[in-house]
């Protein structure tokens, strides 16, 4: 495809300004040059395209028929340039925030709510960093993170976000009504990456329920908690899960909590670097708090 053969941009700008303002002097003021420079630019343009563009009069200039045809095209073009550049300038001023959380928390709690963040904080762009390994916030991998555990975290400010309570959940198709119904059902296990945390387990739950005769080590095991949730929804067995994490599934009726008891877990914390609570991070924290309160998980 042959390249465009266009007059110099400066000459086109001079013509567009003079045609719009109908004055070489006012065009010169707008473009911060002298009227003589405007006149030279337009004369060079006329010579290049071979047509006269202005009728020079005593106090003003008038467009020729050729100029009347050329001017609207250039005006639309320069308007489009200005609009695109203004849009890029606005985008460059937007702040992007990165929030890190575990794979399951990102998939089951954050992603379903992320649309409301755009409504609450239209000037901020949110990037979700999903990883079961804690990120180093001081290295700049993320601006903030959500962590499950005891807390506190050295060098970080940790604020409680969600209280976790664990209970058996399953598909309503299993029609379980009492703890004894677990006999004969497959137990679904999530294998925690950080075994140093004393997390709720089927063994602890059965001891609290006073239930014996169940092999608490048998069943299906998942390295990703969200996979255990999907398996429970599919009716493959009963999972011991955070009620906050499956709140949407319980509300939708795809999962049920057929019985207790309920075990207490560690909180989910909102964490960020000490002394670095920017307005953007504060806005993210406030939105997360609102979402936690709205779902009854705070």
From TrEMBL:
HTH lysR-type domain location is 7-64
Kindly provide the name given to this protein in its UniProt entry.
Transcriptional regulator GcvA
Return the Pfam families for the record: HTH_1 (PF00126), LysR_substrate (PF03466)
Q: What is the top-level taxon of the source organism?
A: Bacteria
Q: Which family does it belong to?
A: Belongs to the LysR transcriptional regulatory family.
What phylogenetic lineage does the species belong to?
A: Bacteria, Pseudomonadati, Pseudomonadota, Gammaproteobacteria, Lysobacterales
UniProt-listed NCBIfam families: PRK11139.1
Q: Which UniProt keywords apply?
A: DNA-binding, Transcription, Transcription regulation
Q: Which organism is it from?
A: Lysobacter gummosus
In terms of Gene3D superfamilies, this protein maps to:
Periplasmic binding protein-like II, Winged helix-like DNA-binding domain superfamily/Winged helix DNA-binding domain
């Amino acid at each position: 495809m042959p390249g465009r053969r266009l007059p110099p941009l400066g000459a086109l700008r001079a013509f567009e300004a003079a045609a719009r303002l109908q004055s070489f002097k006012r065009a010169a003021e707008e473009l911060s040059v002298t009227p003589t420079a405007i006149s030279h630019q337009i004369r060079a343009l006329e010579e290049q395209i071979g047509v006269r563009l202005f009728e020079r009069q005593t106090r003003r200039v008038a467009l020729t028929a050729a100029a009347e045809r050329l001017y609207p095209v250039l005006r639309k073009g320069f308007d489009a340039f200005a609009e695109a550049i203004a849009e890029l300038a606005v985008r460059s001023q937007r702040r992007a925030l990165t929030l890190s959380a575990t794979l399951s928390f990102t998939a089951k709690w954050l992603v379903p709510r992320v649309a409301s963040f755009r409504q609450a904080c239209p000037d901020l762009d949110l990037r979700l960093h999903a990883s079961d390994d804690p990120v180093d916030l001081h290295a700049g991998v993320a601006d903030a993170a959500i962590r499950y555990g005891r807390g506190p975290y050295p060098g970080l400010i940790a604020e409680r976000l969600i209280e976790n309570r664990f209970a058996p959940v399953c598909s309503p198709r299993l029609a379980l009504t009492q703890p004894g119904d677990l006999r004969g059902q497959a137990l679904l296990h999530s294998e925690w990456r950080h075994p140093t945390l004393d997390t709720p387990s089927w063994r602890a739950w059965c001891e609290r329920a006073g239930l014996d005769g169940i092999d608490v080590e048998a069943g299906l095991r998942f390295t990703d908690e969200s996979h255990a949730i999907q398996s429970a929804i599919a009716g493959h067995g009963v999972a011991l899960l955070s009620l906050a994490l499956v709140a949407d599934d319980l509300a939708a009726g795809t999962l049920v909590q057929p019985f207790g008891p309920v075990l207490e877990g560690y909180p989910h914390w909102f964490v960020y670097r000490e002394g670095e609570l920017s307005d953007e991070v504060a806005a993210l924290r406030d939105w997360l708090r609102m979402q936690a309160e709205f779902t009854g998980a705070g």
